[in-house]
Design goal:
The structure is a homodimer of 514-residue chains.
Chain A lengths: L14 H18 L2 E2 L18 E2 L2 E2 L3 E3 L1 H23 L1 H11 L4 H16 L5 E13 L7 E8 L6 H16 L24 H15 L11 E7 L6 H13 L5 E5 L3 H4 E2 L9 E3 L9 E9 L10 H11 L4 E3 L2 H5 L3 H8 L6 H5 L5 H9 L4 E3 L4 H8 L1 H4 L2 E4 L9 E2 L2 H7 L10 E4 L8 E5 L5 E19 L4 E15 L12 E4 L1 E3 L1
Helix pairs in contact in A: 4-9, 5-7, 6-7
């Protein structure tokens, strides 16, 4: 259904107004590092042989109105969500029971679980785990009711866009207030005169989590001691690097912590675990300084979240290598597994054991109830029942999305395509999928997007709010650092079903609270 | 001759070291706005139809050693140079006599002078002038003598690279100290462990000058009063925009002054001077906000410094339009003319009237003598004498450069090409040129450049130090603001005779003082 807030928002743009906003946005993005590397496949042959070019990240020209009550609720619940996923990760028995059920239908989950079992057999040497999370939501609109907050997914690995989303907030705040004293960058509109987007501390929060882990690692476990560092494990050819650099810049400049970047395919070449040292420190050998060695306190994964990144056994070997080391992992294999859609669905089950209250025994029941309110109805597809009915009936399927156990989007099946897709799979594979009721954001939401090739698109959009949190805990469940801070608004054209800002399908946005 | 400081500098780089430094530099540049727009002519057809791409500015991978005594002398003299060029501009009779001598051989100078005369006839309505200057030098090396500072040229219009050079200083400082506590970005070398480049306050200094002029303009001269702004007049299709944005960002964020950018070919469309207002305020009408109008306190020219920018009478009309307005010009036509090479040559004349002492009557004679020491020998070519001899003799020509009355480089004639070039001109045109003895920087200076297409070049280089200054004065010679601050090191491959960083021929650099 419609939300009246969008009735005349955003205001229409004359050609001169659009030219001004586009130029200001393009230039601001390059000046301030709101950037991505262009996709080499979209550039003509030979345009960038040395990979030096950059372009603006895809952004909306206007901030999007977002219900204040939903925004504040998402922030209020984030540290509770942090605790929930830490607690799930600590309860290996509970987690393992769900995961083992997925193993025969999901190779990726199976290989992650095998990685855990292999390290468990040898014995873990690091009790601490670090989570850098992003909980994604939509504002769900229903007739005669204030919008409510509904969770889309909870990301436990490689939660991205913290660096760039803080910049988009600054971009929109600057457009809203410029020039100083006589703001005219936007056409006049009451919403655009109502204030600026709230502060966005994503960079401080996420790098603060990494810094807390770095500190908690303690002194070097090597003899003689080595200088310590944080290691960003990244994808080779990553285009969303400036988002990551926003965090390493803060770690280096503010926290004074050495950070190195290492492509996942070089882990086994450039890191070692001395076999003579039972503490198993992870040693990084910078190829550009052969005489140096650093001990890795914290491995921050911005890679290895997707099955297609594991090209051979060597990638699994690298993953085990890191997992068995003394470095604090962000995340551990178990914590990554806790992000499976199946976990979300089990937590959301309206009947049966009250998992939430078990995991959050020290949290006020009223707060747990609020957290439960953020769950959209979702269904098990392992064996008949309501899930099968809703998925196979073409009419009810229209209100649902089918999700595999993946992060990062790009794999979901929507609405009318669900029944046919399910029937194309053997029934024994259905349990690898979760059926979720679609959330209904305002149907008339509109915005104007500037793509990273400079094309300008106006139309109906759907926005997802992500809220960042970070938590450091040990395997007894003791929590050492638990913070929330910073947010992301990701806005996509309505005809596009999936996210993935770097791929150009959706845009980074910011919020005007109402 | 050689300088022993360069004997083993910069250290050689292994492939892994070079890969690390190049990647770190390329990414740092995009993250921090050390960027330029790529030249569309060097991109394949269709690579960037919407002009969104950016690349790193050309930079050196290493800072260059530079004699501390020369660096400090250049800074010590800058406010005196500021005063000198303000005083020359105030002395219209003295300036006019020299300029009128160039009129019949230099159309550009003639048209500038005509612009001044036209406005003078009507009467100027603005007594204040603003200079944003850059004095360019080399460290001149002679046997058995400490290096001395010799001036290459003094720029009175569109002095560029203040924004980017401050960033290159930060880039090199960061590489020298990273990672924190265990710096290994560079290979070990005593010079690279000796400290970081000195602070570079170019952005603060240059925007501080513009802010001083904005404030000195006083209240709006319109009825009713209009909001005030600074206007950056820029070239259409300018690629070095982020250098300019560094100044406008500071003006907006720190000084809270509205800034607009206006392409020179749109001046007559988007600004007016109400004929009914004898104060002649310059009114800017933002096309993206038709209901708004701003009164321009200060016109900052980053355009109209070169003859090829005046494509028709309309450009001269636009120049007169600004000149006759109440806006403070940075620079005025007269101040631009004061930057002619001929002025530099007259000031440097070893015999005849002591112009320096006349213009700087309130300055200590010892300081004037130091300023005079920065002049390289230079010769009048108007009528025979020593200049002709040195220029036409193939042997002495080798030690000289022939310069027209232009800023921005690209027009000079060097060494063996001088005699033939001069002979190809009628003798009556020779007076439009100045012959200058070449300065001898260290012959063995070396560096590694990262071009803006990502190519890496190592070789012998020549570096020019630029020092920024700003001065605000009125036509009686009273000075209201006179500051120096910030610097530029521009380093070019030795086989390349001319500067022009944005064109890819030379690189932005920073200094390690020794």
């Amino acid at each position: 259904m419609d939300d009246p807030i969008y009735t005349d928002y955003p205001p229409s743009l004359s050609p001169a107004q659009q030219e001004y906003l586009v130029t200001a946005t393009k230039d601001w993005a390059i000046l301030n590092g709101l950037t991505v590397r262009p996709n080499p496949a979209t550039l003509p042959e030979g345009a960038d042989p040395n990979r030096v070019l950059a372009t603006n990240a895809p952004v909306t020209l206007f901030p999007s109105p977002f219900p204040r009550v939903c925004f504040e609720e998402a922030q209020a619940l984030q540290t509770v969500y942090n605790e929930l996923y830490a607690a799930i990760t600590c309860n290996e028995e509970w987690l393992g029971k769900i995961i083992e059920d997925l193993i025969d239908v999901d190779d990726f989950v199976a290989n992650l679980w095998k990685t855990h079992l292999a390290v468990q057999k040898e014995g873990y040497v690091q009790n601490l785990s670090l989570g850098l999370y992003r909980s994604d939501y939509m504002a769900h609109v229903t007739p005669n009711h204030a919008p409510t907050l509904k969770q889309v997914e909870f990301n436990t690995i490689s939660s991205s866009f913290g660096g760039l989303s803080a910049l988009v907030r600054s971009l929109h705040a600057e457009l809203l207030t410029s020039p100083p004293g006589s703001p005219i960058s936007y056409p006049p509109h009451p919403l655009l005169q109502s204030g600026v987007p709230p502060e966005n501390t994503a960079v401080e929060t996420l790098s603060g989590g990494l810094a807390a882990a770095h500190k908690a690692y303690g002194p070097s476990k090597s003899t003689p001691g080595l200088p310590l560092c944080v290691l960003f494990v990244v994808q080779e050819g990553e285009r969303n690097v400036f988002d990551q650099y926003a965090l390493s810049k803060r770690l280096t400049q503010f926290h004074k912590i050495p950070v190195f970047r290492l492509a996942s395919n070089r882990i086994l070449d450039q890191t070692t675990i001395p076999s003579s040292n039972p503490s198993r420190p992870l040693i990084y050998h910078p190829p550009h300084s052969p005489a140096s060695a650093f001990e890795v306190t914290t491995v921050y994964l911005r890679a290895y979240y997707s099955p297609d990144e594991y090209k051979s056994g060597r990638d699994w070997e690298a993953r085990i290598h890191m997992e068995r080391s003394a470095a604090i992992k962000c995340p551990t294999v178990l914590n990554q597994l806790a992000g499976c859609k199946k976990i979300q669905q089990v937590l959301a089950e309206p009947t049966g054991p009250d998992h939430l209250s078990s995991f959050l025994s020290n949290i006020d029941p009223g707060v747990i109830a609020r957290l439960r309110e953020t769950f959209a109805p979702q269904y098990d597809l392992s064996a008949g029942g309501q899930g099968w009915e809703l998925a196979l009936n073409p009419e009810t399927a229209l209100k649902h999305v089918l999700k595999p156990q993946r992060e990062g989007g790009g794999n979901n099946i929507y609405k009318s395509e669900i029944p046919g897709f399910l029937r194309s799979l053997p029934e024994s594979d259905w349990k690898g999928w979760v059926l979720m009721e679609l959330i209904n954001p305002a149907a008339n939401a509109e915005n104007v997007a500037l793509r990273n090739d400079g094309e300008v698109l106006r139309g109906n959009v759907i926005s997802e709010l992500g809220v960042y949190g970070t938590i450091l805990w040990d395997n007894t469940g003791k929590v050492f650092h638990n913070e929330q801070g910073g947010w992301l608004l990701r806005t996509k054209g309505k005809e596009v079903n999936e996210g993935g800002v770097a791929a150009g399908f959706s845009s980074l946005d910011s919020v005007l609270l109402y």
